[in-house]
Specification:
ten-stranded mixed sheet; alpha/beta; DNA polymerase, domain 1; TIM Barrel; 13 helices; elongated; two-stranded antiparallel sheet
């Protein structure tokens, strides 16, 4: 056996097929079986010659991704624990958007009500969903050890292959019976530490011969790997970039994300300014508000300074706490509390006054261990 077929990029698939003495169009057929139809066996690929199928099966097997656990939240969010051929497991979260029953209400009022009710209302299925977003993983575990993330307690096992990343989309689409229209690399792992495989997967997902998900509907979220930001600035596709900032105060960010102390904020901002100049696209800054830690007046002033001169959009959300059973299993994991709704709304108002584009995002799937690594930790 050489390499399993899901380890190959689009270009490598073409080279593989040509190397077997087949015409180029066979590569397109193979690609579509894998990444349009989601085939899990060469026997399904009936328009490929039998000799080619046998050769591929012997040297480049197709492994099917298994759903080990599936949770459905009251708000319609579904979380999957997935297992690959070697037993490695990751999580993916599918988030449907429904027609807004609160249409006409003030956004701040609706958000406050949603925070108060958490997940006590909403639909439990895909019926009526207007849009389906998938938050997918790029690594098995994560090496970054952010103190508010359950994945950080696990450490890194390995990188995901391009096809293993894409499989997460097929799982969600099959379960919902609907097309995934938006993708966010914000699950387990740091995408820029699996750069080649992650970009290969994004190009597979974006390819018009496959799922054809628009580049502007695909977002890569990094915790702030500066070399990755600079490299991403040179990619030709119009993929979006989000940065998990969480604090613009170096000391506080070092506490929350200790592995990033070698990626200082002033150099991160320089890289983001270069990204905006190179791509003419804005950056989303993810900011999870933690009571008494990064929601202070000084924290707000630091965020304003970081945003100054940067084409960006701030996405505020309450921290999604690590599940108690996960925290109990790891004594070093602190138990953070989300900022009160009033504080989050005040931040939104003040950012708007400062003319910084801002949005509020409610945490989804709280009653199904929705945050990164929670379900996997529970199963472990």
């Amino acid at each position: 056996m050489d390499r399993e077929i899901k380890a190959y990029s689009i270009e490598e698939l073409t080279g593989l097929v040509l190397g077997l003495g087949q015409p180029r169009f066979r590569a397109d057929q193979l690609f579509q079986w894998l990444y349009l139809h989601g085939a899990s066996d060469y026997e399904e690929m009936t328009n490929l010659p039998l000799a080619l199928r046998n050769s591929l099966a012997q040297r480049h097997p197709v492994h099917e991704t298994q759903v080990v656990d599936r949770r459905v939240a009251q708000d319609g969010t579904r979380k999957y624990l997935l297992e690959f051929a070697d037993g490695a497991r990751v999580e993916a979260v599918a988030i449907p958007s429904f027609a807004d029953p609160e249409a006409g209400r003030e956004p701040m009022q609706a958000f406050a009500q949603a925070l108060a009710e958490e997940t006590a209302s909403g639909a439990s299925g895909a019926s009526g969903a207007k849009r389906l977003t998938l938050c997918f993983s790029t690594q098995v575990g994560c090496p970054m050890a952010c103190t508010f993330c359950a994945s950080g307690t696990e450490g890194l096992s390995r990188n995901l292959l391009p096809g293993e990343i894409v499989d997460q989309v097929f799982v969600a689409q099959k379960d919902f019976g609907a097309r995934v229209g938006n993708l966010v690399a914000m699950g387990q792992g740091e995408p820029f530490l699996n750069y080649e495989n992650t970009l290969a997967a994004l190009r597979i997902l974006n390819n018009p011969k496959g799922l054809n998900i628009g580049a502007r509907h695909i977002t890569l979220s990094t915790c702030g790997i500066i070399s990755g930001v600079r490299r991403f600035s040179c990619e030709p596709e119009q993929f979006n970039l989000a940065v998990s900032l969480h604090s613009a105060q170096q000391e506080v960010r070092n506490r929350l994300m200790p592995k990033l102390s070698v990626e200082p904020l002033h150099l991160l901002k320089d890289a983001l300014l270069n990204y905006v100049e190179s791509t003419n696209r804005r950056v989303t800054l993810e900011y999870a508000l933690i009571e008494g830690l990064n929601d202070t007046a000084a924290a707000f002033d630091s965020l304003l300074r970081f945003c100054s001169g940067l084409l960006c959009h701030v996405n505020l959300l309450p921290i999604n706490p690590i599940a108690e059973e996960s925290a109990a299993a790891h004594d070093e994991v602190p138990r953070f509390s989300p900022s009160p709704a009033a504080s989050i709304l005040r931040w939104q108002t003040e950012l708007e006054k400062a003319r910084v584009p801002v949005s509020l995002r409610q945490s989804r799937g709280l009653n199904i261990a929705g945050a990164c690594g929670q379900l996997k930790s529970q199963r472990a």
